[in-house]
Known about the structure:
Elements: H1 5-13, E1 16-22, E2 25-30, E3 34-41, E4 49-52, E5 59-67, E6 74-81, E7 87-96, E8 103-104, E9 109-116
Antiparallel strand pairs: 1-2, 2-3, 3-9, 4-7, 5-9, 6-7, 7-8
Amino acid sequence: MSKPLILILKGKLEKVVERGSNENGNYxxxxxxxxxxxxxxxxxxxNYKWVTFPKPFESVGIVTANVSAVDSSYIYQVQPFDYTSxxxxxxxxxxxxxxxxxxxxxxxFNWLAVGTWK
Length: 118
């Protein structure tokens, strides 16, 4: 059985070596090499949005995102893909709850990436 996330993070939080932000988002570096980055973005170009990480990763483990739109008439989705050490693409789309074709949109979305910095 795996440990609860709070117990895993408890020991790590005492070992933060750097924390900061820039125009691309926020980051936290840990002594063991873990790098957590997060931010918000919007807009699309050619049906997707390039998002640049605040700090380059040595290795990207996971990128996840969620749409921050609230609308009872539509379903919204965001899918991060094509991760590199410096950026990723996000595809944002929506569909009316009543059905119909999916469309692409420029909704705000939040993202979180975890990997290593050394």
